[in-house]
């Protein structure tokens, strides 16, 4: 069903993305009418996407070719409709990218995309999900089998005709929970990660009023494949532009900005070194700090940070460079074996290199495990790629690409965003201004006192070392870093609390317990 009336105009501040590439996916619900074809051309001129995925074109081969002739310099390829349903198309800008068609059928089509102006190379899949669950499962398995053969990063976008969670649907009958579980199972088995929308929720709407209104999130983008060597950020959004019952969705691929400042972070991988505990003892005991006990603890941690940074630079080295060097040496040994055969010298050298390689791979997996913050998977099961992809997706979720300021407008410039954030919190912290304008004294006085002196004594009692240790043991080792850059795993070291003569008195217990509350 098509939405009546004119298409929504672009909101203020919208326009062509300044990113590296914009991909738009849209279920147009038919391109037979001239006004719908004009609408697609207007979408191309308004948002300037390099790649457009269209579903339900309802065009045969001849009509698709005729529509392609009206696109000017852009090119189009697609699969024909069956009667008055289905039909897929991909439109691309040949001045910016090369598209090599791969597999195509009634419900999905794919192509390899190579950018002409940078080293961006990936596979794109345009998906239109069937209505019936059995047909969905068949199509999902086809895509899973296809993507399992790929070596490049792959993006899958389109109308999946399925939702993952009940909150992705509003109105109408309850969602089929088993269908959502099947959808989630396919995503997990395929190793895909969803690129979440930065705002808004629903991509499809039946445009009815009151209790008859139904809205769902049926359109989305997924990414799969190793993102280790993919130095780009990903951002998906819903475009306010439609005369179909589906809104277009867009995927912006942008070059990853290098951070201006890299704060200290204690890496759990350092604990794999045989000498790290003795070094920590030496650095701690060698730090001469005067002042209160808490002051000593804080400043000794600062001294340890400096020592760790220097030690990491001089002795621990970069595991990724080490891995590359070992792999080069292994390749040289293999070439010698192929040319001259195996001898004792080559055998021993290969054995040592293989052991070094396994050790580095274990450290690499441990490294990405900490950064991924995933607690339900354990190291040792070759999950490095999953952990790394989780890190990339977490960074995408945490990235602030736009904010709404006090006058209601949206800001996208990173410099202005930083200034607005600083100004906002400066206003709160440096003045008596309150966001809710509440009289806090009156509010506190209105709360009845239910605690007696015994309760206050218990709550104000100093922490014991046993309580601190018990609390620390219950915390995840990879919990969020504190402002000092040390994770929970550092304070869980038995050496810190017992073996190496650190200040184990009440003051350290208070400091660790106080800090642990904020982790």
List its salient traits:
519 residues, alpha+beta, Deoxyribonuclease I, Chain A, 3 domains, six-stranded mixed β-sheet, 16 helices, 41% helix, disordered N terminus
Report the uncertain regions. 1-18, 497-510
According to DSSP, the number of beta strands is: 17
The CATH class assignment of the largest domain is Alpha Beta
Query: Alpha-carbon distance between the termini?
Result: 51 Å
The biggest beta sheet reads: 6 strands, mixed
Shape: globular
* H/I helix tally: 16
CATH superfamily of the largest domain: Endonuclease/exonuclease/phosphatase
What is the second-level CATH architecture of the largest domain? 4-Layer Sandwich
**Overall mean pLDDT:** 77
Portion in beta strands:
15-25%
Helix content: 40-55%
Structural class: alpha+beta
**Into how many domains do the coordinates divide?**
3
Report the C-alpha radius of gyration, rounded.
29 Å
Structural account:
The protein is of the alpha+beta class and 519 residues long. The chain folds into 3 domains: 21-255, Endonuclease/exonuclease/phosphatase (Deoxyribonuclease I, Chain A, 4-Layer Sandwich), CATH 3.60.10; 263-269 and 278-315 and 448-519, no CATH class; 317-399, no CATH class. The chain has helices at 34-47, 61-69, 133-147, 177-190, 276-286, 293-316, 319-340, 344-372, 384-398, 414-429, 440-445, 453-460, 465-474, 488-491, 494-499, 506-517, and strands spanning 21-27, 51-55, 75-79, 88-92, 97-104, 108-115, 121-128, 153-159, 169-170, 193-194, 204-205, 215-216, 219-224, 232-238, 249-255, 403-404, 410-411. The strands form 4 sheets. A 6-stranded mixed sheet has the order 3-4-2-1-15-14. A 6-stranded mixed sheet has the order 5-6-7-8-13-10, sandwiched between helices. β7, α3 (133-147) and β8 form a beta-alpha-beta unit. The protein is globular and about 85 Å long. Residues 1-18 and 497-510 have low confidence and may be disordered.
